[in-house]
Amino acid sequence: MKRTQSGYLFQSNGAWYCRYREADGKQRAHRLGSVADVPKKSDAKVLQQEYMKKVNATLTPQSGNTVGEFFANVFVPFCKEQGLGAGTLRNYETNWRLYLSPRIGHLRLRDVCTGDVQDALDSLRRERPDLGHGAFGCVKVTASAMFSVALRKRLVASNPVHGATIKGLGHRRHRENGAYTLSEIRQFLTLFTGQTAAVIGFAAFLGLRRPELEALEPSDFDGETVRIHRATKTGNDVLLPVIAPLKRLLPGWAEKINLEHEKYVIQKGLEGTGLKWRGFYAFRRGLATNLYEAGVPVETAALILRNSKEICSKHYIKLDEERKRSEAMEKLEQVFERVEAVQKASEGRPQ
To answer: CA 33 from chain center: how many Å?
Structure first.
């Protein structure tokens, strides 16, 4: 059974503090509030009791460490032990280093409350007005994942991210979700060779997601198909047929795929060309669009992309709207002219 304690209430420099002893034997003092805000000792006693409930619920040495120490010594090792995808862990580390660490990294783990998380998000909005709403969502997800692990290990009494909101934070000016045409894909493959060309081929001809690309190993290719069975969004274990244009690229595939490196290589290689970098997902959207324009039903395209028909229709198929309008109007013109010709022929017949 855990040893409970009530703590010792005292004043110092115009503020109320509660002194207590951690499980490792070290004494800690926690600031409860200023005397100006809490003038009565009885009210300070209430704050002391509330705080000591949190201390007694998480009476472990790690809960008294800073959030920064928890992230480095507990959270990251836990994610690696659980086999978290390299891309996801990299995103967690980036969000922590750039956005969360400067704002809550110095706080003690058990002391972080919903207000601290909200203050961090609000200050990020003031300092980085260029960030989109999606970026704030990623930051919040990272914080929630961290405190979920802390809660699971009984280092905090609750997840302080619950209750924080990103409503109204970040702009919603999204980059156009473009899709590469077959002509553009061919241009890519004339610009790049080796490993980079193979990566482009996997993305353009199989529509692989980022985690799927980075999880690929040479043993997953048997000469005719590629097996997708690691780090997949939906836990798929499927064999995808490899078409001839992709087979010709695979001899250049020599090592584990690092998309950050490939992105750098591609962006440098596109300088001075007419091609625009739209991200690896533009190849996936391009596959759906190119299949659809080739006459492949949406249901079949969805099987290849390993997603639902609705998602493919709404988010992946990106038709050239101007060209489609022109084609549609040309068809309307042709139909009208046929009807007009029939009517003129009918009017010219003898009664």
So the answer is: 38
